[in-house]
Structure formats: structure tokens, C-alpha cells
């Protein structure tokens, strides 16, 4: 396992390749350096949901779900047909079968207004959650205008799923992202657009570090402390590990709130990983608007030597507000980066599902590969909010041996091959020898399911007016009155929940026994 650098500083960009221990420093850009006995990258919703289904069915003590949104109507395995249970029915059946199992679900309070899932059951409950050992809570413990953005599932304190996917509608898809995929529909039978996302699954000592973040968030929101139990084997049998006994750093964003200092490990991690890059940076991100990242990339691209940088993101943002703010700021950032890219080391692409581009392919993943040494996956986008306003959790896998480096490169090439619509071997075959990664990608692009260059036009390069209000890095100082009101309402809600939990409860026959 990595040891922390006592100097507490990551090297500036340039010079010899930095040791991983000099880049990842607890208290600076991560809260823990640990180890995963097994780690795998679950690419797209079909792989993640199937692996989660397998681990959930092995749960005996605890299922802790932390998310930005949640919808119990989804089916984790729609490929199994009409007999596949909904997520809610699966969780209910598990607690009825296993007397020691508790299910806890924590969802951002304003997901009821902003999330794609069904909101009413989060307010008033649903049949599946009407059980004394199932608790679904809305989290109000955050500053005004902030969101809880972490996406984690911890099972029996033994296996952790961390990444960009919430357990909600419009997340399931297959790597082919076929425009006519019949299973890609919401619980009401309405089809949705192709979507690409990534989740990591980990077991071993690192689960304790990830679980601590999840338990802290549950305690902050509910005033209920959850003890950690001894780990057991809950790894999904269908998943082959990509790496074994690999070092992992765990990083957070937590906004300042109620007198507690903020944590900005994720933003610092982004800076330090980019500065550590020597050959290639590969990024997938839903948003690409961060002022901080933009300034650093400008500096890197202006230097005569440095890494090639590949960014894959969605062509157009969702909704009018996102197009005006996130879309406009990305365009302005791209203009700045293009002007700085005097040595031709930057490509920003968007994926398409067909040659006519009639179907947008949504990039919802938040992934970064730095050379073949670091693989980072989590909930944090390259936007301003992820710096110090929204809660985030990312994990970074660190290659220290040649087989580990080959595994990380193989995973990067798997993602690129998916987007290009080619075989992974095409990326490192004889025709690619001696070529830059940028030239290999451009040589493999084709009509149909592939990558397109993100267009840029002339125009302003400064951030879009109003960005400081709509995509701020930290809690808004001018919203102090709303901030205090929100805090009082949150304290009142937690006190009410505490009184409710302390009063004797009378379980109905339906709650006590098995559903008929």
C-alpha cells in the first residue's frame, strides 16, 4: 500500500515522472490511502445493475444506498423479462427473508424536484418501503443551493459500488448504445436516449474508508450512527476483477456547513493528477466548465512538452438552463483551450450513436486516466460545483506494477473502443505503432457509431454572465439569510425524525410479516 509523502505536496507539472506516493497525499487530495483486494470497472448500466443485483442478493446485515436520486420502480435486470423484480420489490423481499438485514436509502432532498425519478414515494412512502427495517430518508443537511451528489452502495460493509450512476430511471444501457434498444425505457414504458456511465466495484480494506463517508452522511442527515461490521465476501460472482490487491485513494468534496469546515480533496486531486501527467490524459465528463481546470489545462497546453489530452463529453446539455450556462461555459472554455493549444495536444470529442446523429448519446460518466498509472472514477464532474458546493466521492486506483499499468491501459482502451465503435485491439495494433494517441483515435473515427470533434466557434472566452450564481464553486455568501433558514428547517426536520424514532412504533401485519 502507498505511504503518504510527509512533505504534503504534489510536484508541479514538468520534469521526471512522479512517484504515486508523492501525488496522493491524505489530508491534501484524499482522506484515505487504502487497498482493494478486488477492483473492477463496470461500464454502462447493464454491467453495474447486474453486478449490484448479484451483491444485493448476498446481503445479510446491511444495504446502505446513498444517492442524488432514487427510483424503486427500476429493474436491475430488464434483460430477464417481465419476471425481473423492481428494485423496491427486491429490497423488500430480501428484508423479509433475512431477519438481520436493514436497508437504508438516503436521497438528496431536492431530487424530488430536480431528479428524473418518481418523487411522490420519496415524500409519502411506498408499499415496498413499508417495513420496520427499511428506511428511506431525504437529506436536507447541506447549504442552500448545494446538492448531495455522491452515488454509493455499501453492502454488509464488505463491497462498495462508487461512481457516476444513481439507482434511478434513464441510467440502464448497453455498451453498443443501439438507437433502437428495446429495453432502454423507463418504468412507464417511455424510451429514453442512449446513456454512457461508469461505476467501480471494490472490496477489501478500502470499503471501510468508503463506508465511513456513507455512514457520516447518514449520521449528518438522520442523527443515527451506524456501526461498521467485520467484512465478509459479498463480491458479485459474475464480475471478473480488473485489478487485485491494488492501492486506492478515496477523495471527497464536502461543503462548509453549520460551522464545519469544507473539504475540497476532489478539486485538489484533479489539479495534482493533471500535473503528474506525462504522456496521456483521458477524461470522460458530463460537464466540462471548471474555471480551475481550464486555467491549469491552458498552462499545460502552452508548454512545448506535455501530455496529450483527450476529453469525451456530450454534444448538447440537457434543458434550456443547462444549455445557456453549462453549454455556453463549455464553449467559452474550449475557445480558450484551442487558443492555448499551440502544439496540437488537445482533442475534445462527443460520441454519436448513428451517422445521422439523430440520437444524442449522453455522457454521464466521471472518469479520468492519467498515463497508465492512475484511474479515477466517481461522482465529481469537471464543473465548478464539484469544487466545494456539492458533496462528491471519487476513488483513484494506482498502478505500481507493470501488470497493473497494463490493466489500467486496457480499461482506457475499452472505453475508447466503445465510443469509436471498433475492437479494442485496433487501438494498439501494428497500424498504431509509433503514433500519438490523438492520431490513432482520429484514424479510427468513422461514420456511424463513433466519435466526432466538438465544434468551436469564435466568441467570448470569459465565463457566461451569472455563472457565479448558477454554477458556483462554494456556498453563496450573499445567501446567508436563506442559508440560516435552511439550517433551521433542517434541524427541525432532524429533531422531528429523532422524536419519531424514539417513540414506540406499532408495526402492521404487513410490516411484521411476509407480503402476500
Structural commentary:
By secondary structure, this protein is of the alpha+beta class. It folds into 2 domains: 32-257, Endonuclease, Chain A; 266-470, Endonuclease, Chain A (2-Layer Sandwich). It has helices at 20-23, 45-56, 87-97, 111-114, 120-124, 206-222, 265-276, 291-302, 319-340, 385-388, 402-420, 437-444, 467-470, 480-502, 509-512; strands at residues 32-43, 62-67, 102-108, 134-139, 152-155, 159-163, 195-196, 198-203, 243-254, 263-264, 280-284, 308-312, 346-352, 362-363, 367-370, 374-378, 392-398, 450-453. The protein has a 16-stranded mixed β-sheet that branches. It has a two-stranded parallel ribbon with strand order 7-14. Strand 9 (243-254) and strand 10 form a beta hairpin. Helix 7 (265-276) runs parallel beside helix 8 and helix 8 (291-302) packs parallel to helix 9 (319-340). It is globular. The protein starts with 19 loop residues before the first helix and ends with a helix. The model is unreliable at 1-15 and 504-516 (pLDDT under 50).
At a glance:
The protein is α+β, with helices and mostly antiparallel strands. 31% of the residues lie in helices and 20% in strands.
What are the defining features of this structure?
516 residues; alpha+beta; Endonuclease, Chain A; 2 domains; two-stranded parallel sheet; 18 strands; disordered N terminus
Note the topology.
Layout: H1 20-23, E1 32-43, H2 45-56, E2 62-67, H3 87-97, E3 102-108, H4 111-114, H5 120-124, E4 134-139, E5 152-155, E6 159-163, E7 195-196, E8 198-203, H6 206-222, E9 243-254, E10 263-264, H7 265-276, E11 280-284, H8 291-302, E12 308-312, H9 319-340, E13 346-352, E14 362-363, E15 367-370, E16 374-378, H10 385-388, E17 392-398, H11 402-420, H12 437-444, E18 450-453, H13 467-470, H14 480-502, H15 509-512
Parallel strand pairs: 2-3, 3-4, 7-14, 11-12, 12-13
Antiparallel strand pairs: 1-8, 1-9, 2-5, 5-6, 6-8, 9-10, 9-17, 11-15, 13-18, 15-16, 16-17
Helix pairs in contact: 7-8, 8-9
Amino acid at each position: 500500500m502507498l505511504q503518504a509523502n510527509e512533505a504534503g505536496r504534489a510536484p508541479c507539472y514538468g520534469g521526471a515522472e512522479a512517484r504515486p506516493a508523492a501525488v496522493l497525499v491524505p489530508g491534501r487530495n484524499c482522506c484515505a490511502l487504502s487497498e482493494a483486494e478486488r477492483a473492477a470497472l463496470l461500464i454502462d448500466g447493464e454491467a453495474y445493475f447486474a453486478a449490484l443485483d448479484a451483491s444485493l442478493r448476498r446481503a445479510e446485515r446491511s444495504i446502505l444506498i446513498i444517492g442524488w436520486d432514487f427510483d424503486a420502480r427500476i429493474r436491475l435486470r430488464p434483460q430477464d423479462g417481465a419476471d425481473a423484480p423492481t428494485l423496491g420489490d427486491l429490497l423488500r423481499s430480501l428484508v423479509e427473508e433475512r431477519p438481520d438485514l436493514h436497508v437504508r436509502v438516503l436521497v438528496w432532498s431536492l431530487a424530488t424536484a430536480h431528479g428524473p425519478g418518481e418523487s411522490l414515494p420519496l415524500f409519502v412512502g411506498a408499499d415496498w418501503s413499508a417495513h420496520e427495517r427499511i428506511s428511506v430518508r431525504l437529506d436536507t443537511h447541506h447549504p442552500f443551493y448545494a446538492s448531495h451528489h455522491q452515488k454509493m452502495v455499501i453492502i454488509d460493509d464488505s463491497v462498495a459500488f462508487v461512481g457516476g450512476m444513481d439507482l434511478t430511471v434513464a441510467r440502464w444501457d448497453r455498451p453498443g448504445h443501439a438507437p433502437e434498444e428495446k429495453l432502454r425505457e423507463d418504468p412507464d414504458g417511455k424510451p429514453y436516449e442512449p446513456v454512457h456511465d461508469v461505476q467501480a466495484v471494490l472490496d477489501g480494506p478500502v470499503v471501510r474508508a468508503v463506508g465511513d463517508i456513507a455512514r457520516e452522511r447518514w449520521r449528518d442527515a438522520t442523527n443515527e450512527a451506524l456501526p461498521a461490521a467485520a467484512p465478509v465476501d459479498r463480491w458479485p460472482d459474475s464480475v471478473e476483477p480488473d485489478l487485485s490487491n491494488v492501492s486506492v485513494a478515496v477523495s471527497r468534496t464536502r461543503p462548509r456547513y453549520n460551522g464545519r469546515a469544507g473539504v475540497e480533496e476532489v478539486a485538489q486531486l484533479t489539479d495534482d493528477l493533471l500535473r503528474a501527467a506525462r504522456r496521456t490524459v483521458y477524461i470522460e465528463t458530463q460537464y466540462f466548465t471548471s474555471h480551475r481546470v481550464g486555467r491549469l489545462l491552458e498552462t499545460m497546453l502552452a508548454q512545448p512538452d506535455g501530455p496529450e489530452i483527450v476529453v469525451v463529453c456530450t454534444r448538447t446539455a440537457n434543458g434550456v438552463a443547462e444549455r445557456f450556462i453549462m453549454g455556453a461555459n463549455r464553449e467559452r472554455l474550449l475557445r480558450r483551450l484551442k487558443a492555448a493549444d499551440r502544439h496540437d495536444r488537445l482533442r475534445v470529442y462527443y460520441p454519436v450513436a448513428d451517422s445521422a446523429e439523430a440520437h444524442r448519446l449522453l455522457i454521464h460518466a466521471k472518469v479520468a486516466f492519467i498515463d497508465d498509472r492512475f484511474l479515477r472514477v466517481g461522482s465529481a464532474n469537471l464543473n465548478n460545483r464539484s469544487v466545494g458546493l456539492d458533496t462528491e466521492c471519487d476513488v483513484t486506483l494506482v498502478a505500481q506494477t507493470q501488470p497493473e499499468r497494463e490493466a489500467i491501459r486496457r480499461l482506457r482502451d475499452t472505453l475508447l473502443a466503445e465510443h469509436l465503435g471498433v475492437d479494442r485491439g485496433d487501438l494498439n495494433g501494428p497500424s498504431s505503432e509509433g503514433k500519438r494517441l490523438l492520431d490513432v483515435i482520429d484514424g479510427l473515427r468513422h461514420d456511424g457509431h463513433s466519435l466526432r470533434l466538438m465544434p468551436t466557434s469564435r466568441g467570448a472566452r470569459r465565463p457566461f454572465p451569472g455563472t457565479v450564481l448558477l454554477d458556483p464553486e462554494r456556498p453563496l455568501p450573499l445567501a446567508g439569510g436563506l442559508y440560516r433558514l435552511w439550517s433551521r428547517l433542517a434541524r427541525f426536520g432532524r429533531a422531528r425524525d429523532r422524536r419519531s424514532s424514539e417513540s414506540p412504533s406499532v408495526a402492521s401485519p404487513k410490516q411484521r410479516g411476509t407480503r402476500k
